[in-house]
Design goal:
By secondary structure, the protein is an alpha+beta fold. It has a domain at 52-99. The chain is built from two helices and five strands, in the order E-E-H-E-H-E-E. A three-stranded antiparallel β-sheet has the order 3-5-4. A two-stranded antiparallel sheet has the order 1-2. Strand 4 (74-80) and strand 5 form a beta hairpin. The longest helix is centred in the middle third of the chain and has 15 residues, at 33-47. It is globular, with a radius of gyration of 19 Å.
Amino acid sequence: MPRFLRAATHRGPQPAPRPPPRHPGRDWRGRGLATRAVLLVCGYAAGVGAREAVIQVEPGNPASAAVARRAGFAPGGRRRRLDGTVFDWHTRDLHGDVP
C-alpha cells in the first residue's frame, strides 16, 4: 500500500493518515469504543442468524468484563480450554433486541 495518497490540492501528494491502533492506548480508553464495537458485532451476528454471543475474558481483567457487562452480556462461568488456559465466559442471547 502506498505511503502517500494523492490529494486533490495544488500541494501534490499528502501523507496517508495513520490507521487506528489495534490496541488503543490510554487516550482512547473510556470513550465506549469497545462496547460499541461489541454491539455492532452482535447486531451483525444476529442478522445472519446467530443465536448467542460469547466473550471470553481473562480472569483479573475488569475492563474487559465491564465491556461485556455494558454490552448486555451476563457472566456465564469459568471455562478451561484444552491447552489449560482459563477464561471467564460472558454470554448474550441474540434473539432479543440487539442494537
